[in-house]
Amino acid sequence: MESRVLSGATAISGVPRLRKPAARLGGSAAFFPAARPIGAVADGGHLIWGRQLRPAILLEASPAKTLKPCLAAASSPSEGGDSAGDAKIAPVGFLEKYPALTTGFFFFMWYFLNVIFNILNKKIYNYFPYPYFVSVIHLAVGVVYCLGSWTVGLPKRAPMDSNLLKLLIPVAVCHALGHVTSNVSFAAVAVSFTHTVKALEPFFNAAASQFILGQQIPLTLWLSLAPVVLGVSMASLTELSFNWLGFISAMISNISFTYRSIYSKKAMTDMDSTNLYAYISIIALLVCIPPALILEGPQLLKYGFNDAIAKVGLTKFISDLFWVGMFYHLYNQLATNTLERVAPLTHAVGNVLKRVFVIGFSIVVFGNKISTQTAIGTSIAIAGVAMYSFIKAQIEEEKRVSSV
Asked: What angle do CA 306, 293, 162 make, to 5 degrees?
């Protein structure tokens, strides 16, 4: 549809006379009387009318002198003219018609895949305690999945250059370190305890924002983190599966993911999240392979693989490694896609509920015995994370509204 900018109109005997159009932008035409745009375009901006205009531009004009524009229906190039009649309206798909139902399905799949991953991951460590190698498998399966998706064009691979690579390497290194240390903790202690310790991640994020990035953290946020620290301390003191390797590894994972967040802010890019996560996974895989070969390679070749195959069989061993890697990649990808669809407050609720689901299901599935103090401490820590997330989400929403 052609768009034109008109300079004004004058009336002769009550009939408006249109002046010549000041600009020609396309094939067919629509004419307008004099109109004074208001808002952002009132200060000398161009008035543009088209099918893809968002948001609508309001015009101040006398009702008697307003000529409504004609909507051009789609026409073939061979016709060369405007088509009269109503504009064609594209049919609304199921996803657009029921957005809440779609978002709920995304949340369900995110939680489901996360719980399955944690349960299967821990079962593997019960007969194959090699977290560095398993971490490599997690990333390797995801990388193969990404390469296959790129091959069929779902999604189309985004281009990579040296500048973007330099920005993504620190993010991927921190991602690799945080992933490996999380798995070391999962192999050493109960899944519920690792997730309880990892509830301290907001505390490290706030500390890094305050003292590294120089961002001022409100006092209310710091106060909301006090229950988190108290709850994790209570749970750690009485956790039956506690050992220092599991605890320290979970703490290193917290620090690593905190720095990943810092470097991610510096590596902001227009690349979509699916491609971005794929590139980060590839780099992280290359980072994880050397320590796995150095620290666990000799044991794996000597007796690690043979012991696992003797316990569960070759078919189950290979299938377990494949599926745990697939669940790891899919739940991370679903988490990214889900959180892109919701507001910050819903994001906060989703993250808190996810941790509650994982802790609860791991206790039920593995039958871990926990003391009353551990249960109370875990509950206090989760409540503190929820409080912190809600306050932070409200602050971010206020900043967004004020900036708009």
From this structure: 140
Tens of pLDDT, residues 302-330? 999 999 999 999 999 999 999 999 999 99
- The residue ranking higher by pLDDT, 40 or 179, is 179
How far apart, in whole angstroms, are the C-alpha atoms of residue 130 and residue 357? 26
Residues in the chain: 404
Banded model confidence at residue 346, pLDDT cuts 50, 70, 90: low
Phi and psi at 257, nearest 5°, equal -70, -25
Give the separation between CA 162 and CA 169, rounded to whole angstroms.
Answer: 11
Which value, to the nearest 10 degrees, does the dihedral of the CA atoms of residues 96, 101, 107, 110 take?
-70
Spatial distance between the Cα atoms of 46 and 279, rounded to a whole number of angstroms: 41
Listed by start position, the domains of the chain span 1-88, 127-397
Two tokens, residue 177 = 């370190």
Q: In the numeric block, which tokens belong to residue 5?
A: 């900018």
Per-residue model confidence (pLDDT) at position 348 = 61
Q: Structure pTM?
A: 0.68
